[in-house]
Structures are given as C-alpha cells and as structure tokens.
Write a structure and sequence with these properties.
This protein is α+β, with helices and mostly antiparallel strands. The chain has 13 helices and 30 strands.
C-alpha cells in the first residue's frame, strides 16, 4: 500500500459532527490501491483487563477522483466521544493507520495512538437553515429585470432592451418590476430570489454603496421593499439581499469626510489609508476593492465600523424580514468580523441564510461559526468545462465533482449555493456556443446535484451575452423572443426536483463515466427513493449500458411518465446526441 497517499485528519471534511449525536469520518487512499477499509472505534474510557476495548465496522467507498479513493463511515458513539483508527486491506497486506502512524496490529495498550474526537457539542455542529436544501434560487440584477415604475427611472435611462448595456448605462429596472413578475417566478418554480445590491449608490450595479440604510431611489423606497418581501413570502419565495461590507462607494459619507478633513477626520481609521492627502492616481494610496478608487476598503476590525455594519445587517432583517444575506468579496474581510456577524444575525433570525462570495476552497469559513454556504464556483467550473466547453471528458468531470463533494462535510454540501452563471460571468448559452442541447444538460445536472441551485435571470429563456456588461442585458419579456423549449425544460426539472426528495437531498453516486462516448450515469438515493440520471454529452447517438441490477423493479421515465418492468439482466439507454433520461427506480 502507498502509505504516503493515506490521509486523515480529525477535523473539517475528514471528521465532523453531522448532528448532535452522529460523527462522520472519511479516509483518503491512493486510487485503486486499497481493497477495503474497516474503522476501529471505541470510547476512550472503555477498558478491560488492561486493554482498550474497540469495535470494527466496514467503511464504504463514496467515490474517487483522479488520484484518490475516499472511504466513509458514520458512528453514533453512546457517550458522544470517540477514539478511532483505520484497518486497511490490500490483497494479503494489512495495515492499521492511527494518529501515531502505521502498525501491523491494532495497539490496545494506550488510546493515545488513535485519532481523537473529544466530544460532540451541539454548539459545534455546522447547521445551515433546513429550508435552503429545498430551495431553487433565482438571481436578479434589479436594474435589468423589469421596469415597473418609469416615474423613478434615472435621467437618461434607455428604452427597455433597446440596445446592449454599457458599464454606465441605465434602463430603469426597479423593485416594482420584480413585484409585477412574481407570478412568472412562481410558475417557473422558484422558491428564493437573490437580489444584487439595492442600496443607494451611483452605479447601475450598486456595489459602490453610498448609504447602507436607504433603498436606491431609482429602485423604489422602503415601502416597496416591504411589499416585495411580503408578496414573496405569501407565494412561498424567500428573499436574499446583497451586503457589500468589504468596501463602500466613493460617496459614502464617512469617506467623504476623510476626503474633506484628511488626518483630522474622525473617520480616518474607518479605512486603510497609507498616507495623506488621499490620491487616486496612478494608484490609490488607500486600500480599495482591486485598485478601483471609487471603492475604498472598509476597516472591519475597527469597533465603530463593525458596529455600523452589524447594525445594517440586523436592520434589514428586523424591519423587512429578509431571509438571507449574500456577502460580497467575503474572503477579504477578517474572520472575527464574520463570527460576530453570524452571532448577531442569527440572534435576529435563527434560520437566516448566510452566503459568502468565495471562489476558491472555503473550508475556513464553513466550520459552523461563520457562513452557511459559499457560491460553489468549483462546481460551476467543472460543469461548464464538461457540458458547455467540452474541454474535459466524462471521467475527469466525475472525478472533479467527487473531489468537490469530498472537499467539505456532507452538511456543508447540502446547503451549497450551486450556480451556472451570474452577473460576473458570461451567459451559459453563450458559453455553450448557442447550443441549447448543452444548456439543457447543464440545467439537468445543476437541478439534480447536491445543494441549493441558483438560476441567473434570463438563462432559463436562452438569453445570451459575454462578460460584464454583456451578461447584464435587460430581461426579455416578449414570449416570441424567448426560447420556450429551454424554459419548459427548466420548469419541468424544477417540478421534478420538488416531487422527488432524492433529487433535492439524496446522496449522489457516479456509476458510469466513459471518456470515449462522454456518457454519464449517476444515481441519487434518499431512503427508499432512487433516481437514475443518464446523459449523452456527445454529438453522436449512444447506447449506454445501465450498470445496475434493476431486475424485479419498475423504471419510470420521469420526463414522459412511461413506466415499464425491467426483466432483462442488462439494460441499455439509447440516447440521441446530447440526449438524457431520468428514471425513478421502484420495486414491484
């Protein structure tokens, strides 16, 4: 066995409390190097005749990526504490792996050899709001969704959809426009909306906040927001707002005071200023978002700044009953601020959803003391590279998804925010080269994967556009200009996701991934409910063998309702180019 590839650590994604009494344990081994693994486990204080007493249980292989296999076990220690190790088998070879290294036999003279999970404390368990696991999100860029009140449109606003947007153009989208189209979202099946910033700011995107306590007047007023949230709640839709706490806008009153009064400003320590007077060229001499002078970075470690921003966070929950905060540039703010943020907003509303914008490995923010989820861009990248760009094959894609899932605890994955596109990325149909068949496969994978999916406004009707500002076009409301085939596809998938718990919450297992044909099969299992998803991501017809014994069971085609009994020993799914099928597997 390749010892150097065997890895475990008693924390994070390798050892964690799934709930108040259950511990999840994972082990990593070299791919195809180990035949089976047993978990050795016991209470650290269970001794008999000078020997530590332990039990064994088989571990289950839960997937493989390009380099490693992953093994899993679930334990419910009666006294909520655990010492444990691993017994690995490869042919005739056997090794016991502990915190102190490798042994031929399991040491029983001292529990200090073994990995330690000291105690399962309820307060240490990662807990995201349960409702998020069943939510289908819809991201709205308010300036471009719908103009419901032309009287408050900015001066010089262009006629709706009359031209492509520029970084500085306005079209008059507002909160009333969202209210006017809530029935469209209900019909689609949306149960959560995420709004990019709505607070007073000079830009069309509003990530340069001038006043965190006021709605931008071009979007409406506080009464309009109250109406929007109330109507959404009446229709079963949650509302998440965007918090830009890493930086403010140039017009933010405290920053203007620093510009005016320099070193004598009472707000000078609210920012990261290297020298006075402030200058913007050639680069600002104060910290900013990127090097944008109009977005000075806030000093979130300063007590007054922290108090101000936490007041903002609780105000919009308390007064408007919002259901979530999406946190912009979350990784550039100190962890202590986010810990305090979680404490105050959860005290205000315990089941509020805290979502961080982090594009990379986010384990430090997902230990239960900061965020409920992050925007799952590793998922996005893998899905786009396989389905849209065809840069990787089916095996590499499955490996990447397994790696993503094993990078975090299961309870983190269940609340992950899975997106295909956003206001920061090209439209998915554009990435697909205009091929609707590829876009349909993308939506199929997104809406059957573990986590909470989010659709960027207009992607479901085939809107196109490259990077910002092209991805921020006005929503197309003329049915004649919408792709009805894609719209109906997304609508059907959301309905199936609601109908089958396995599609929302089931454990995913990749059963087949063939690089030659680029065919893919995975199953989602939740209790007695099993759904098979079969895809052909190629431009040729494919006969795809189903690697599952389905004799004595019914297969129900979830897209057509066709139901048949599986009697043959082997079955094949015959799919057209870029075709797919979903089967519910039911016992006779």
């Amino acid at each position: 066995m390749r010892k150097e590839a065997i890895h475990h650590r008693p924390t994070d994604n390798f050892a964690y409390a799934y709930d108040g009494e259950t511990i999840h344990l994972r082990l990593r081994t070299k791919k195809e190097d180990v035949d089976r693994v047993e978990l050795l486990h016991g209470d650290p204080y269970e001794w008999q005749d000078g020997a530590w007493q332990f039990q064994t249980m088989p571990m289950r292989k839960t997937g493989s990526d390009e380099l490693f296999d992953y093994w899993f076990a679930e334990v419910k220690p009666p006294y909520r504490r655990l010492r444990y190790g691993f017994m690995l088998h490869s042919g005739e070879e056997r090794l016991v792996y502990t915190e102190k290294g490798f042994y031929v036999e399991a040491p029983i003279d001292d529990t200090a050899y073994y990995f330690c999970f000291p105690f399962v404390h309820r307060g240490d368990v990662f807990e995201a709001p349960d409702w998020v696991k069943d939510t289908v999100w819809y991201q709205i860029f308010p300036e471009r969704f719908a103009n419901g009140n032309p009287a408050i449109s900015p001066e010089g606003a262009r006629p709706w959809g009359s031209e492509d947007p520029t970084p500085t153009s306005f079209f008059g989208g507002d909160l009333q426009g969202i209210i006017d189209h809530l029935d469209y979202l209900v019909d689609l099946g949306v149960t959560g909306i995420y709004l990019t910033p709505i607070f007073r700011a000079p830009s069309n995107h509003k990530y340069d906040t001038a006043d965190y306590f006021e709605i931008d007047p071009h979007f409406g007023d506080k009464e309009t927001l109250k109406t929007l949230v109330q109507r959404c709640h009446e229709k079963g839709i949650r509302v998440m707002l965007d918090a830009v706490f890493n930086h403010c806008g140039y017009g933010f009153a405290p920053f203007q005071d620093v510009l005016k009064n320099g070193e004598s400003s009472t707000y000078k320590d609210w920012f990261h200023i290297r020298e006075f007077p402030l200058q913007t060229e050639p680069r600002p001499n104060y910290d900013t978002f990127a090097f944008v002078p109009q977005m000075p970075k806030l000093n979130t470690a300063h007590p007054e700044v922290k108090r101000y921003l936490l007041d903002v966070a609780t105000y919009w929950i308390r007064e408007f009953d919002i259901d979530g905060w999406r946190l912009d540039v979350a990784n550039e703010i100190d962890h202590e601020f986010w810990r305090e943020f979680r404490r105050v907003v959860k005290a205000q509303k315990p089941d509020i959803y805290i979502l961080g914008e982090i594009w990379h490995d986010a384990m430090p923010w997902l230990r239960g003391d900061q965020f409920d989820a992050v925007m799952n861009y590793p998922f996005t990248d893998g899905a786009l590279r396989f389905f849209a760009k065809e840069e990787i094959g089916a095996r590499q894609f499955a490996d990447r998804m397994v790696h993503v899932l094993h990078s975090y605890p299961n309870n983190v994955n269940e609340a992950a925010f899975n997106l295909l596109g956003s206001h920061d990325t090209p439209r998915i149909l554009t990435v697909c080269g205009g091929d609707v068949r590829k876009a349909k496969l993308l939506f199929l994978f997104q809406l059957t994967f573990t986590g909470s999916p989010c659709i960027y406004y207009g992607d479901e009707i085939g809107m196109t556009g490259g990077n910002d500002p092209e991805c921020r076009k006005c929503m197309v409301w003329d049915p004649e200009q919408q792709n009805n085939e894609l719209h109906q596809h997304v609508k059907q998938l959301i309905a199936l996701r609601k109908q089958y718990r396995a599609l929302r919450r089931g454990e995913i297992t990749f059963l087949h991934a063939n690089d030659e044909t680029n065919s893919l099969i995975y199953e989602k299992i939740d209790g007695n409910e099993t759904v098979l998803v079969i895809m052909n991501r190629s431009d040729e017809k494919a006969d795809i063998p189903i690697p599952l014994d389905v004799r004595g069971k019914w297969l129900v085609n979830l897209l057509t309702g066709e139901r048949f009994a599986a009697e043959a020993e082997t079955l094949c799914a015959v799919l057209p180019p870029y075709g797919f099928v979903l089967y519910a597997v039911e016992r006779w």
